[in-house]
Amino acid sequence: MNEKVEFLKSMGVDADTAISNMIDFETYDEMLNEFYDGINGELQKIDNFKNANDMANYAILVHAMKSNARSFGFMKLGDISYAHEMASKANDVTYVNEHYNEFLQAVKEVYNIITKYKSM
Q1: Tens digit of each residue's pLDDT (9 = 90 or more) over 12-70
Q2: Are 84 and 46 in contact (CB under 8 A)?
Q3: Could you tell me the domains of the chain?
Q4: Integer Cα distance of 87 and 82 in angstroms
């Protein structure tokens, strides 16, 4: 097994499922790089919608984050994003605001894992 895959697994990433969903490791690796390159921009947009209490657009972006996170095997971020998606669809601004730091921390954890992964 590839050193990068072993690293992902050691960090709690469901790498086997994610790679099989993307057909092969090369495709996973390429798509993960694209996801990584876009995280900061997407996070800025999410933050802007949260700060504007624009729950409709917030829901769209956290839905995308959930889908991407789960696709790449980052299940914790996927679950947290899902909770934010459901809360924002219910226009529960209080939940979004109270749990936003948890969401940010999960995104940062994923970003840091991918940063280490890319340096291997």
Answers
A1: 999 999 999 999 999 999 999 999 999 999 999 999 999 999 999 999 999 999 999 99
A2: no
A3: 3-118 (1.20.120)
A4: 9
**Rounded to whole angstroms, what are the CA distances from 28 to 10, 59, 74, 98?**
17, 26, 13, 33
Distance between start and end Cα atoms, the chain: 14
> What count of other Cβ atoms lies within 10 Å of the Cβ of residue 22?
18
d(C-alpha 1, C-alpha 61), whole Å: 34
* Cα–Cα separations (whole angstroms), residue 82 to 3, 73, 77: 30, 14, 8
The H or E element spanning position 116 is: helix 100-118
Cα–Cα distance for residue pair 98/96, rounded to 1 Å: 6
| Max Cα-Cα span within the chain | 46
pLDDT at site 120: 94
